[in-house]
Design brief:
nicotinate phosphoribosyltransferase; about 450 residues; homodimer; TIM Barrel
Chain lengths: ~450, ~450
């Protein structure tokens, strides 16, 4: 992983063949592409838009390295194409919804307007980043909804699809309100709180569980989470209590349950800790958790103070991708649309209007970008790049995006927030946009 | 993305706290950790091991950068810990199954033996890489089984969990026998065949479909795949035929179907092409494909020559993670085990013995690494690092791993190869290992 912007080969080959063909045919007209979701996954009442800032950085740095051009030459691109690519930079403008905004199907998350070759070349990267970051942000937001007052900690790094995915999962889970991450590199990069104490291997490396607990407490007396389930969970709890008392520990103390029946074990552990006069020792639970299991534990009043959520959040296990597309909606002043069965698109550059806060969200209005805002509604898409340069020199902090999402979730109707059988907010299509579609469709036919 | 080995912070914080504690307590004994899968996902009769080479590169380059040490200092690690980390390199030995080997639950994919702090610190990265690369390699191998004689092309880059995941999905799909990838950067990095021609946006950017087809054919006359479903699929086919005839194209020609009923459309398109005297024009199908849909189309004899498989392979949609663990099995000459409910481990360093080729695979034997090979069986785990250095200076090619997997799949029983309701090969535990477990268990209790 690095911060260096990806080069021009970070794309599908067909983007390059199309770009070469556009340039050869003198097609340098402005194209607008719209990146949106065709449908939401079955158990999703909303999606959290994420990854926009990564896209802006990529676009600003987009270029071909000399060795990349050599490779394209080997692939058979002719000298004319190579010369076109050599000087190519992204010179277009981009509008996007701000990071952490709640979106629904058919609402553009990003719209790119640029000479068609440039706008085409960046398709793959933009889809890649927005799709996976939004999928994981959405899963994390659902965990946040399920957890109520309990804290959430990102434990996903060991099972995400790579190091890059682990870093970005930590970031988007922080946007969703997770309070800490186990991922050290992510904590550093994004200014998050890093957390973590011991694994089972630590307990096993000592000749007894008590010895392991005592050694760890000696090293980190102000902050210990005792992992109590290596051998027998409740025996582990009593050993943790023993070490806490003997050493008169008084910092941030917790026990962690990582296997077995978390409801029963948390109740029994809470009772043991309380009876030992240790009501301040917190209980952290982990192990195959997701929003469904967290909701179940919460509904049964499990005395769990924090949930460590790993794999299922970090890969968005029940919806590991979104049905995202990047569609040409206008070229050279002409709105265009696609009519493929089940995949037809709305033509033209767009805007999404939403009820202004603090009013409840919905229904949203999908409109042409030329239409004025209806009364009481505000536009979601805002300019983020112009002439190939980003409008804000600095990336927004994770916490600004977190506050935005928090406000959006507070304005969603209950049926969109439901974890099972949710109903997304309706997206109405403005009469102007409907007329435009009918007009373009008749021309295409 | 870069080739620079990830730094020492590419890990969970608890690995660092544990390592610091081990070093403070003078615990420098050799530890053996075993990385294996506890269970296979429901619809998996086997898993393809992948990612080992990435792990070896990481281990060889493992170190802390000065700025990483500064960050750990800020997090509260004391000077003693920082000094320990400053000089730390990975000095251990590693045994692993070769890339592309078929494995089952409880069989170690990697075993690391090193001073415990070193072996602990690398846990997160090793789990991350082996887990996701093996999950995707397995999904790709299932597509290969389903496709029979048809070609497979990796189209996943736009929906993988990041750029790194896209590169590695292209690589492991090549190991699984995919013949090409749309991912230009991956083709370059791993020496794969890159493929791709046009998207719907290309067709839409011209004032008519015929004009788009003709323009593309003029630019790339020797290799064109006409995307025919932008407006009406069979009309698109007839326009492609028209352009092929008018321009007397004679290179590698194909049409691509990307929506609608792929069975019906492929039959109708094949008939149109054949009637036009173009039996050599191939049919490529894509759009929400996975092994289940490819098998269905094959069973109905859809005349499809190549399948473009994207999202569902690239995220392993029905099993986006594996239940992988990295468990301490020996420390300082002493075998150890964990007894957590449902998560108990077998103690000691291990070997997996398998029937020698070309005999059918199974049952495998999980044994202590001290046991000799039973007659007619060969060991799966081979040394890949010693004293912190890799044994083979160069990474193996993707194609060597592909041939290995191909041979393994050819030796699997039919019930393990089944796509639905498969039954993995049995893994027996040697009497010696069983006795060792009973002995260690009694001591732990």
């Amino acid at each position: 992983m690095t911060d260096r912007p990806a080069g021009g080969l970070t794309t599908d080959l067909y983007e390059l063949t199309m770009a070469a063909s556009y340039l050869r045919h003198g097609m340098t007209g402005q194209a607008t592409f719209s990146l949106f979701l065709r449908h939401l996954p079955a158990e999703r009442g909303f999606v959290v838009a994420a990854g926009v800032d990564e896209c802006v950085m990529f676009l600003e740095g987009f270029h071909f390295e000399p060795d990349e051009l050599d490779f394209l030459s080997e692939l058979g691109f002719d000298d004319q194409a190579i010369e076109h690519f050599r000087g190519l930079r992204f010179s277009g403008s981009v509008r996007a919804v701000p990071e952490g905004t709640v979106v629904f199907a058919n609402e553009p998350i990003v719209e790119v307007t640029a000479p068609i070759a440039e706008a085409q070349l960046v398709e793959t990267y933009l889809l890649n980043q927005i799709t996976f970051q939004s999928a994981i942000a959405t899963k994390a937001a659902r965990c946040r909804i399920a957890a109520g007052g309990a804290d959430l900690i990102d434990f996903s790094f060991r099972r995400t699809h790579g190091v890059e995915a682990g870093l970005k999962a930590a970031r988007v889970s922080a946007i969703a309100g997770f309070t800490a991450t186990s991922n050290t590199a992510a904590a550093r990069r994004y200014g998050l709180r890093a957390t973590g104490t011991m694994a089972h291997s630590y307990v096993q490396a000592f000749s007894s569980e008590t010895e392991a607990f005592a050694a760890f407490a000696a090293d980190f007396p102000e902050r210990v989470t005792f992992l109590v389930d290596t051998y027998d969970t409740l025996t582990g709890v009593s050993r943790a209590i023993e070490v806490i008392r003997q050493r008169r520990l008084a910092g941030q103390l917790a026990i962690r349950l990582d296997s077995g029946d978390l409801l029963e074990l948390s109740i029994a552990s809470r009772r043991m800790l309380d009876e030992a006069g240790l009501p301040e020792v917190r209980i952290v639970a982990s192990g195959n958790l997701d929003e469904y299991e967290i909701e179940r534990l919460g509904q049964r009043s499990a005395p769990i103070d924090a949930y460590g959520v790993g794999t299922r959040m970090g890969v968005s296990a029940d919806a590991p991708y979104l049905d995202s597309v990047y569609k040409l909606v206008a070229y050279d002043g002409r709105p265009v649309m696609k009519l493929s069965p089940g995949k037809a698109t709305q033509p033209g550059a767009k805007q999404v209007y939403r009820t202004a806060g603090p009013k409840r969200i919905g229904p949203d209005l999908l409109a042409s970008d030329q239409e004025p805002a209806p009364s009481g509604m505000v536009p979601l898409l805002v300019p983020v790049m112009e002439g190939g340069r980003r409008r804000n020199a600095r990336s927004e902090s994770v916490f600004a995006a977190r506050d935005r999402l928090d406000a959006d979730l507070g304005r969603l109707p209950a049926q969109a927030l439901r974890l099972v059988g949710p109903k997304p907010v309706a997206v109405e299509i403005s009469p102007t946009l409907q007329s435009l579609a009918a007009f373009v469709r008749s021309g295409v036919r």
